[in-house]
């Protein structure tokens, strides 16, 4: 299913103006299993006949209240596609599984921006730039795992519909913007 957010993709200075950000996060592997690791674990579990987990009812209620259309994957994560007025689209995943630290409970909302090919060199200048962007993002961060570059927002497990919508929009916009830059307008994710 596809969801249409009422917005055009942010570009250049418009993106910079919208993303007044402060978090100082780095391009390190996720604190929780990465999307790539999570998919591998689910594939292995499915091969062994294990049942998929349940969708977190708090997440489903917030996404439904936000008016977003989604599909549920084998990991019980919610997947949706954001379509833009210019014909581009971006896939976003909202993890049902949550992360806990002390009394806090969060979940990741992420979008794949780029897959580096086996022969494709990881550009140090790009990675340094993305680390700098992490220092300005208030809502999310870039993460590199297994040659996959993700835009991620970490939201409360009990996020409101507005918080969910904002996180989905953020990761879709920044991932699509980087995808456009790195792939020369190809719309792969």
Descriptive account of the structure:
By secondary structure, this protein is an alpha+beta fold. It has one domain (22-183): 2-Layer Sandwich (Yope Regulator, Chain: A). The chain is built from five helices and eight strands, in the order E-H-H-H-E-E-E-E-E-H-E-E-H. Strand 7 and strand 8 (148-156) form a beta hairpin. The longest helix is centred in the last third of the chain and has 23 residues, at 161-183. It is globular and about 40 Å long. It starts with a strand and ends in a 6-residue tail after the last helix.
Query: What is the CATH topology descriptor?
Result: Yope Regulator, Chain: A
Rg from Cα? 16 Å
CATH first level: Alpha Beta
Low-confidence stretches: 6-32, 41-52
What is the molecular shape? globular
**Which class do the helix and strand fractions yield?**
alpha+beta
Count up the domains: 1
Instruction: Kindly estimate the percentage of residues that lie in beta strands according to DSSP.
Output: 15-25%
What descriptive keywords fit this protein?
single chain, 189 residues, alpha+beta, Yope Regulator, Chain: A, 8-stranded mixed beta sheet, 5 helices, globular
Q: TL;DR?
A:
The chain is of the alpha+beta class and 189 residues long.
Q: Could you give the topology of this structure?
A:
Layout: E1 2-4, H1 12-18, H2 35-47, H3 57-65, E2 71-72, E3 78-83, E4 89-94, E5 99-101, E6 104-115, H4 124-134, E7 140-145, E8 148-156, H5 161-183
Parallel strand pairs: 1-3
Antiparallel strand pairs: 2-3, 3-4, 4-6, 5-6, 6-8, 7-8
Helix pairs in contact: 3-5
């Amino acid at each position: 299913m596809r969801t249409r957010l009422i917005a055009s993709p942010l570009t250049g200075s418009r993106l910079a103006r919208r993303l007044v950000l402060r978090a100082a996060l780095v391009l390190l592997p996720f604190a929780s299993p990465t999307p790539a690791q999570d998919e591998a674990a689910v594939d292995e579990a499915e091969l062994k006949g294990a049942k998929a987990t349940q969708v977190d009812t708090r997440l489903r209620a917030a996404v439904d209240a936000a008016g977003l259309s989604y599909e549920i994957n084998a990991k019980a994560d919610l997947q949706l596609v954001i379509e833009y007025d210019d014909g581009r689209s971006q896939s976003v995943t909202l993890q049902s599984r949550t992360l806990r630290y002390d009394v806090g409970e969060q979940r990741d909302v992420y979008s794949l921006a780029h897959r580096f090919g086996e022969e494709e060199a990881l550009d140090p200048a790009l990675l340094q730039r993305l680390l700098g962007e992490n220092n300005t993002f208030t809502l999310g961060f870039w993460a590199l795992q297994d040659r996959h570059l993700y835009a991620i927002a970490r939201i409360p497990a009990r996020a409101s519909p507005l918080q969910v919508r904002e996180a989905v929009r953020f990761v879709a916009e920044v991932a699509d913007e980087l995808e456009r830059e790195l792939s020369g307008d190809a719309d792969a994710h």
